[in-house]
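Internal tracking record. Fields below are filled automatically when a chain is submitted to the structure queue. Please do not edit lines marked as system-generated. If the sequence contains nonstandard residues, flag them in the REMARKS field before resubmitting.
Queue: standard
Priority: normal
Entity type: single polypeptide chain
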Amino acid sequence: MALPSLARLSLKGNAPTQMRWTADDDEALHDYPPLPLVAAENDACPICWEQLHEQINELGPPVRVCRPRGPAGGHVMHRSCYEEVRDSGINRCPECRHPMAAPRVPPVEDFEGEGEQRRLVRRTFQNGMVMHYEGPRGEERRVRVDGLGPGVALYFEGARGQERLVRTVHAGGTMYHEGARNHERKVSNIRNDGVEEYFEGERGQEHLVRGVSPEGWIKYYEGARGQERKVRVEFQGKTYHFRGARTQEYMWKIEFPNGKVQYYEGSKGNERLVRTEFNDGQVWHYVDPRGQERKVKSVRADGTIRLYEGPKGEERKVKEIRPDGSEVNFVGAKGHEKAAGYMG
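SYSTEM-GENERATED OUTPUT FOLLOWS
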């Protein structure tokens, strides 16, 4: 029986043995290191002390039992030794004390062609994930990954070893990505309802900045990822402005194509019109709750003030205060007011 040599076989190549596994990412998605690599390391199992590449029929193949974590993890033992350790109630790696995880089995590989034309076309993993490949033998490149969930599929472009994610199809639509391999960032998402969403920021920090609908509205957002808040909406020539935290945005201003501006107050869903400014300098003021706002005062550019009474839509002018300080009282329904008294 061989003496143990700490069995620090790391699939990331960062353990004391300095052994490095240079397989591509697809192969690294399982925990069964290639036997030639294990034999070349000539290391021993930390549980039974037998060489990892020997007595595989009796002890099972070598498997990685803990995920690599920086300079630690990635340790390997015989499969039967791992099962015996777990059955005994131990769930931490004897080498690094990190939690152990059930080894992920290698995928089932499907090939097409014969002899020198035989090429990899598909890898099916135990969790149901399927990777599809295209290209001649030795140059097979990953082009699609599915089996990740209902309606989910990932699409890739680039030569073998340089495949980069360019598109994700999901239940809600299609997401597009840009950037080099392992640095792909989300740049847009086309929803099933036709709304186009655009994002900015580095990978993992992408935040929504704009949304465009088939109906023609454009929504603008500000804030970090997960905290994006609506700040502006453009539709049919009007611009709606919002304030407030995400999901609590309330409208406070509307700008019209003719230069008119309306101002609002109140929380989301309770915004009420309080003031309208016209491009000729005139300003109208309103009171009462949302949906019942009535004009109570107007101020003209020359300083003339008019006061109104009556419910919404029936406001009638009752007084006019002129810049010289004189006042005129009015009587009559809206649109038929007549001067009833003058105070100089």
